[in-house]
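Most newcomers find our protein records easier to grasp once they have seen one. Read left to right, the backbone structure tokens trace the chain's path through space. Once this layout is familiar, the rest of the handout is easier to follow. The record below serves as our worked example for the rest of this section:


***
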Amino acid sequence: MNRIIRRIGDVVIVVGAIGAFALSSAALSAQFGPPPSGPPKPPKESAPIDLTGYWVSIVSEDWRFRMVVPPKGDYPDFLLTPDGKKLADAWDPAKDEAEKDHCKAYGAPNIMRVPGRFHITWADDYTLKIETDAGTQTRLLRFGAPGKSVAAGAPSRQGTASAQWERKSLRVDTSNLLPGYLQYNGVPFSSNLKMVEYFDVIHEPGGEVWLIDDAVLTDPTYLARSHKRSTHLRKQADGAGWDPQPCVVR
């Protein structure tokens, strides 16, 4: 029998095919079981997908922009503001080398695009950690604990990343960044950049497991419009090939 259940105060009305009858909350609990109780599970326990393990970049698109350094001024995928174009066209790798600022292309807006291996673990019940062997970077994706917001801290290469589960995806909002590059050849982003990512795990019939990172970057200072990227990683059985290396100016 199909039932429609409505609550009016402490009385529950159950409407069925043969009419309606009233039950107290206690009687309904005895018939249908008690409602869920207790505090919500922490994000680690409530995760709808498993992102942990070792992952390797699969560069199936934008090869010449990700595997090698494109020439100065070669950035067809980006629509820059006049200020952004001026900076990109003035890029000088020798200046970066002289300033020992080797990690401009290894910030959060570009690090997942840098070919390499990634190790994802839970640092605690509320923090996912992404470590990269390219540039030896560490991203901390923090879920807000009940009643608490994610503390910003000082601007950094990886910024402040707030995470939340959305159905079977992980959404990450990143801001509070040091300025850097969206591409090796000096395509700039400013401290105003904000990035929204959705991480999804795909299980192929043959057994391969993929991590898809879809990102939207918005920077009113240097980007004339939002920039979208989709990055693919394949899961490894273990840490074979894991080889952390410092940032380099390519």
Q: What stands out?
A: The two ends are 69 Å apart (CA to CA). The helical segments are 25-32, 43-46, 63-66, 82-89, 93-98, 108-111.
